[in-house]
Amino acid sequence: MDAIATPTTEPTTPPEAPIVVQIDNLRKVYRTGFWMNRRIESLKGVSITVRRGETFGLLGPNGAGKTTLLKSLLGLVRPTAGNGQLLGAKLGDRATHQRIGYLPENPYFYDYLTGWEFLKFSAGIFGIPGKVQKERIVQLLDLVGLAQSAAKKKQMRQYSKGMLQRVGMAQALINDPDLVFLDEPMSGLDPLGRVQIREIIQTLKAQGKTIFFNSHVLADVEQICDRVAILAQGNLLCTGALDELLGTTNLYAVKGRGGNLDLLGQWLDDLEVLEDHWQGHLARNPQDFMASMQLMGAQLIAMNLARPTLEEFFVQQLETRGLRHST
């Protein structure tokens, strides 16, 4: 009997996730001046695509057009030209807004309400049933790290900046949105508050939500974003995944203290001793190096991929185009 041939199949590339944000050649021109005869072009033909489940960071100096872009997507500003889609519907589609969450950079709160009352009011706008409201508010307060007692008893006029940012984040999620827009969510927060907002964004990503946000805090963006875009003076300078923009490398920049310098020299290139510490570059397995450090009693201070940081790349993009001191 002849052997039955086993069919061979070529490995298939996983299908790309659906597009949830599509911007094509978006332009916005404002008219200013006493006679409204002065034109300021805030967006100059911006095109961006964001897929479902991505965390996308929009970066740029002050006045770059980031907030204008967000407001154009949300229907708060009417674009001068261009078009776009959110969740498969044209910009401005009212039904789509039920599936979108938004935290503005400077949100306005009814400060005579408690946080709980404000979230209940927000849930009512979306027509969420009373029983579901209570369950969801409890879940969101837990997610954003705001105590229920404070949310129920304290008026928001008594809230700190961090507490207001947390209740604002909860408000943006009250309708369990598929797509979340955050305008400078880390603005004005202390380091602990930034960590908490970052953790919330990572939790939302784990839930499969798409997050599109602006930020000046590039270190946070580098930790949590799948892709980023840089906007300056209304122009889109570049967009892509961090590995595409910053490059990939197996070389690590290492800094530490103590240990045997002769052994360290066998591991590290460009080994340099500086006062109470040393530094160099590691091109070998970092796990094996860490085990060797432990055996020799050395202390690791830092180990990072030897590529530009997002902040360095951001500044370089502006400088290359002569924009660093003109924005």
How would you portray this structure in words?
The protein has a six-stranded mixed sheet with strand order 6-7-8-3-9-10, with helices on both faces. A four-stranded antiparallel sheet has the order 2-1-4-5, with helices on one face. Strands 12-13-11-14 form a four-stranded antiparallel sheet. It is an alpha/beta fold and 327 residues long. Mean pLDDT is 88; it is low at 1-9. It has two domains: 19-246, Rossmann fold; 252-305. A hairpin with a 2-residue loop joins strand 12 and strand 13. It has helices spanning 66-74, 115-125, 130-144, 148-153, 161-172, 191-206, 218-224, 242-246, 261-267, 286-296, 310-320; strands at 19-32, 38-51, 55-59, 81-86, 89-90, 100-103, 179-183, 210-214, 227-232, 235-241, 252-257, 268-274, 277-282, 299-305. The longest helix has 16 residues, at 191-206. Helices cover 34% and strands 29% of the residues.
Question: Could you give a quick summary of the protein structure above?
Answer:
The protein has eleven helices and 14 strands. By secondary structure, it is an alpha/beta fold.
